[in-house]
Design brief:
By secondary structure, the chain is an alpha/beta fold. The chain is 41% helix and 12% strand. It has six helices and five strands; from the N terminus they run βααβααβαββα. It has a five-stranded parallel beta sheet with strand order 3-2-1-4-5, with helices on both faces.
């Protein structure tokens, strides 16, 4: 017997900016937390690169950044996010395209994965991403748009 996996029809590729991941780790209130808690529903597929994941980890483990979680808890949550993500190898650089090189890191993953959305709190930092067919959206806007 051969099993065929049928992808979810409404699943979209996204890239989640570091500020959204950090907000979700800091508080169980708000759209960022709700976004990460919806991962098991397979409504969206996060896309990351090794450098982007290392940025998530570096910022989350910065002294005093996340006070309510232990390093072990942070590792477990980031490992789960990683397990639900597509890891993209970046062989090209768009830099400099945006003002901040760390934002270019996010854009490169979005372009490589053909993501429909970049989810961030800093929409102005990603001006021009529409040239790549990418919508820059806040966690709340994404939740409303996708009926999460």
């Amino acid at each position: 017997m051969v099993l065929h996996i049928i992808p979810f029809m409404n699943t979209v590729n996204v890239v989640i900016d570091t500020n959204v991941v950090i907000a979700a780790l800091k508080s169980k209130k708000g759209a960022s937390y709700k976004l990460l808690m919806s991962l098991p529903k397979n409504i969206f597929v996060p896309n990351i690169s090794v450098p982007l994941f290392l940025e998530y980890e570096s910022v989350a483990k910065r002294s005093g950044m996340i006070t309510k979680l232990s390093t072990i808890d942070i590792d477990a949550i980031l490992d789960y996010l990683l397990s639900k993500s597509n890891i993209r190898k970046i062989f090209f650089l768009w830099r400099p395209f945006l003002k901040d090189p760390k934002d270019d890191l996010v854009l490169e993953v979005a372009v490589k994965s053909q993501s429909e959305y970049i989810i961030t709190f800093n929409k102005r930092d990603f001006e021009g991403c529409d040239k790549f067919g990418i919508t820059v959206i806040t966690p709340h806007e994404f939740i409303v748009t996708r009926n999460i």
